[in-house]
Please model this.
Amino acid sequence: MSAERYDAVVIGGGPAGSAAAYTLAAAGKTVCLIDKSEFPRDKLCGGGLTFRSKRAFEQVFKRQWKAELINSSQNVSFFSHGRFLASYKGPGKIYFTTRLSFDHYLLSLAQAAGATLKLGNAVGTIDIERQSITLRSGDEVTFSFLIGADGVNSLVAKTLFGRSFDPTTIAFALEAEVPRDRLPQQGDLVEIDFSAARWGYGWVFPKQNSITIGIGGIHRLNPDLRNRLDRYFRRKGLDSREFKVKGQHLPSGDYPVIPGRSNVLLCGDAAGAVDPISGEGIPFAMQTGAAAGMAVATALSRTAGRGALEIYCEDYRNVIAPLRKGKFWRCLIYPRLLERLFAWAFRCEPIRKWILTGD
Model:
């Protein structure tokens, strides 16, 4: 059986992979997106979509997103150690979605643009020197460029660097979906609790048909994370054992300076492109995915005079600039010695707005 040849192969069908494949296909390049799962598929994620996510989607996919996939709220309450800190009722909305539907939607846009999809077919081996990928089905595809968008446990990153993340800095999250009728008083109120986990937080995010309750923080500092989740559920009058609890490692500002090597680029969670304070990753996934796709498309045009990685690094540095700032501010928000000072500061509206929005 002869191998299929593509200008680029993208591994991973989340927002980063879909953005990369869409960008390449829209530029007229042949691209194959591979994912081990069939879609729609579920994925642990609070599903929060800030205005930054909305703007990134519109810039990358050149359209408004489907309103029926999104729930929104303008009412956020913040807590710490059982005490109410403040509320936020800003002019801007906070959006929420389920990754089951949102990721499937983005993938359909990439396919409509001309990307070839190979779903439900996991990668067996990657041979970077031969520019070849063998799937567990036995099929083989070859590439000029490879884009790793395969998440925090990235096989592409492991192939390049020997590991996909630093276990001393990685975060871990647990969450469950709760039917809305179990929390009838919640409505569309968003809740954030800074004391639910160490160097992390707990969240209550209202979706269209459910409410996501979860906690996450630096993994090595939260060996009792499941017990913390149980306590967090009990505060809402619920028993976490009644619901399906999902767990997942999350990057926490642990991004590489050079996101790839030669003709192999990393984006999204595979590149650690996640806000180190909020854990927000979807906008950075779409931005880095699109930047990687455009860098490859430009390099393939043979008029750039530079390699794809060099081109990508320029946009990548701009995308991760907020993450560099977030790593600094995280050191002022989460340490125990500064908890009381942070709680006091958070009650002051100008400081709260500055922390929340950067304005």
Summary: The first strand starts at residue 4 and ends at 11. The chain has a mean pLDDT of 89. The longest helix spans residues 282-300. The domain at 4-71+96-165+260-327 is CATH 3.50.50.60 (FAD/NAD(P)-binding domain).
